[in-house]
Amino acid sequence: MQFKYIFFILLFSLNSFGQGGIFGKNPIINHENHDKQKVHWGYFLGFSSYNYKFDYLTVGKDIELKPSTGFNVGLVGNLRLTEYFDLRFEPGFYATQRNLIYPDIEDSVDRLREVKAANLHFPLLLKYSALRTGNARPFLLGGVSATLNLGSNAKAPDDNYSDRFRVKTWTQNYEIGFGIDLYLDYFKFSPSIRGVFGMNDELIRDNDPNSPWTGNIESMKTRAVFVNFTFH
User: Is 23 helix (H, G, I), strand (E, B) or coil?
Assistant: First the structure.
């Protein structure tokens, strides 16, 4: 599924909510005291697209990267700080795959490297919410995160010469995003979109410093987009 279809679904959902009175004139106020809780919990489901940002040692053909859409699931813990600020912890599981294509390698098998990841993601985010209008309240959020890649192959002695692409087990990131809280009859629904930017080089080089897969890479950092649907 491409992300443009996800956006269409999101826009259609918001339009449906609008027709139902959430954005209409004089709506019935739902869960008026929900945000006044000191601590509350929720969960999220969503989609993600992971990419890499490459920096190279010498000029040459860029590695072609074909990301696929993965899925997300996790929990949300929210600590109210003030009327407009909250601190959030959103641990989750993110499954994804990135296909790296090396244009300078002739063999079709060696040219492709499938980088699969089963990530445990631990973001700590500061959320700023605007003034609530009826049953809607837009917000911005940003913070830092750490990611544990359960499929990193970091401890494997084999490398790309044995068809094994290796990355580091832990990575650090910063994140920024936005969304909207919608106060429905029975729960609060919060669609959001967030960008994730890796801060450290994640690549483990092959044993041969002249490896065609890793020899010319100066750094390889995660870039990702999360679309999450949170239920409180």
Answer: coil
Residue 123 near residue 152, CB atoms below 8 Å: no
Alpha-carbon span 62 to 52, nearest angstrom: 12
Residue with tokens 């401890």: 155
pTM for the whole structure: 0.84
Correct CATH for 37-231 of 2.40.160.20, 3.40.50.300, 3.30.420.40, 3.40.50.2300: 2.40.160.20
The pLDDT profile of the chain, 232 residues, written as one tens digit per residue, is 444 545 554 555 555 444 445 555 556 878 788 888 999 999 999 999 999 999 999 988 899 998 788 999 999 999 999 999 999 999 999 999 999 999 989 898 899 998 988 999 999 999 999 999 889 999 999 999 999 999 898 999 999 999 999 999 999 999 999 999 999 988 899 999 999 999 999 999 999 999 999 999 999 999 999 999 999 8
